[in-house]
Amino acid sequence: MKALQYKEIGQAPVVVDLPVPEPGPGQVLLKVTAAGVCHSDEYIMSLPEDQFPGGLPLTLGHEGAGVVHQLGEGVEHLSVGDAVMVYGPWGCGRCHNCAQGKENYCTNAAAEGIRPPGLGAPGAIAEYMLVDDPRHLVPMGDLDPVANVSLSDAGLTPYHAVKQSLPKLHAGSYAVAIGAGGLGHVGIQLLRELSGATVIALDVTEEKLDFAREVGAHHAVLSDEHAVEAVMELTGGLGANAVFDFVGAPPTAKTAAAVAAIEADVTIVGIGGGYSEVGYGTIAYDAAVRSPYWGSRGELVEVLEMARRGQLSVEVETFSLDDAPKAYERLHEGSLRGRAVIVPNGD
User: For the chain, which ranges sit under pLDDT 70?
Assistant: First the structure.
C-alpha cells in the first residue's frame, strides 16, 4: 500500500510503499476513505530528534475516516464495510478519564507510550490504517468522509474549547475568534450555532476576513497593531467575554489576553508556541486562561450530529495520496482555504 511518511528529522514527508498491515486480536483494519492535514503535523515535524514522540519513519495523519476492511479476533459490534471515523486521542481505556470517554486526558498514556495515530502511532494518510481498538471508531453513517473527516480534530477541538465557555456566551456577550483557518473557521460556526454572542474574528489578510464573515462572524478585524483597539471599540470598551486563540502564536496569545473582559475565558487552542501571562495587572480581573487538548469521544459524536443536521461544515481542498506532500507545502505557506484532505484510494 502507499502511505505518506515522515522519515528523517527536518526533511519533507514522502510517499512510500508498505505492506498492508494485518489486524491482531482486538484490532480493526480500515480502508481509508479520507485523511486530514493539520498544523499539528507541522508541529511534530518541527521537533528536534531528542523531542520527537516515538520513532521514525512515521505515517502521518491523525484525522482519519474509512470503511472496515478486516476485523481482528474478538472484535464485536462492527462489520466489514461499516463507515467509521477515527477518534484520534488514544488512551489506556482504564483510567478515570478514559472511563468517561475523555481519552484526550488519559492519565496513563504518557507513561505507557500510547500515542495518537499520525502523531506517534501509524496514521491515516495511507491506503489502509490499523486501529488499535474498536472504541476508537465512531459510526459515520451516510456522512461524506471527504467533507467531514476534518471534524475529528478541526471540529472536535474547537467544539471542546467553545463548549466549556458557553455559560458566559449569552445574548449581549462577545466572543473573539483569533484565526479563521482550519480550526478557526469551524470555531466561528460553532460560536454562531451554540451561543448568543456577537462573534468577532481576527486574521491577517482581507481574504481570511472575508472567509470569516462567510462562515458567520458578525465582525472581522485585521490582526495587527490596531486589533486590540478595534475589539475594545466593538465591545464598548469592555472586552470579550470569551476569547479563542486558534493560532496560539506569541503575538496572538498576547492579543487574546489584551481583549479579555473581566471574568472572561481566554482559551489558547492553537499550538504556535504562544502563552499567556496571568497575574495582577497582566490580564483583566478574574479572567481564566485555559489550554485544552482535542476533545472527548462523546463530543465527537455530538460534532458529527451537528454536521448531519447541516449546522457545521468544513471548507476542504482535496489531494490524492501522491500529491500529499504538496498539501503540506500549501499548509506551510498558508495558502489553504480551510482544510486539506487526502483521498488515498481515489474513491
Answer: 347
